[in-house]
Each structure stands twice: as C-alpha cells, then as structure tokens.
C-alpha cells in the first residue's frame, strides 16, 4: 500500500503511527472528534480503530498490540501480512473524513477511552 495517510508505517518494524498533535493531523481530525465530544487523542483513536477492525475482521486484533498516548497513536503488528490487512481496513476509513465520521457516529462510546 503506497498511501497510508494519516498513518506513518514502518514495514521493517511492523508498526504504524499517527502523530495526532502534528499540525496537519490535528487540524484535520481534532474538529471531527470534537464534534462528537471525543478528545481525539491516541486513546480515542485506539478505541475507534479497534471497533473498525472488529467490523471487518475481528481475528486481526489478536495480532496487534496498541500503545496509544495523549498525542500519538502507536500500534505494532505480529507480521507483515497482518500489518497489510490492518492498513487495508483503517487507511480507507481515516483517509476519508466522511467515512470516518460515520464510524465515529456509530461507535460504542463506552469502548472509547479518551
């Protein structure tokens, strides 16, 4: 996958990161999360990403470790195949703000720790 925006991907280390407090991501994503009373921090991204993956292929969650922080979302996959499958699910959701808004609107709020 060539375009992984808004995630930075390290295929060698099997990680993907969103630097949420960077000016570009903050200006694009914070208002959308705030519209639905979410902080939009790394914990909120994790909760939403987990729910998006569950809808597409819940089994993948067994192979991802999450390590969010207030200003950053970070995750590591167990192998390259899993990383690619995860990216195929989350990049389209996060690169299209209308699609992302639909996921945010329908998310289980109690499962998003922000």
UniProtKB/TrEMBL annotation:
It comes from the Bacteria. InterPro entries: Imm51 (IPR028956). This is Immunity protein 51. It comes from Flammeovirga agarivorans.
């Amino acid at each position: 996958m060539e375009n992984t925006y808004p995630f930075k991907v390290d295929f060698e280390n099997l990680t993907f990161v969103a630097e949420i407090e960077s000016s570009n991501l903050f200006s694009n994503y914070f208002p959308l999360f705030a519209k639905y009373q979410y902080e939009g921090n790394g914990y909120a991204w994790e909760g939403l990403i987990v729910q998006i993956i569950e809808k597409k292929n819940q089994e993948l969650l067994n192979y991802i470790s999450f390590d969010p922080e207030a200003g950053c979302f970070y995750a590591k996959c167990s192998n390259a195949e899993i990383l690619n499958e995860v990216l195929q699910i989350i990049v389209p959701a996060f690169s299209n703000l209308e699609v992302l808004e639909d996921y945010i609107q329908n998310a289980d709020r109690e499962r998003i720790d922000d």
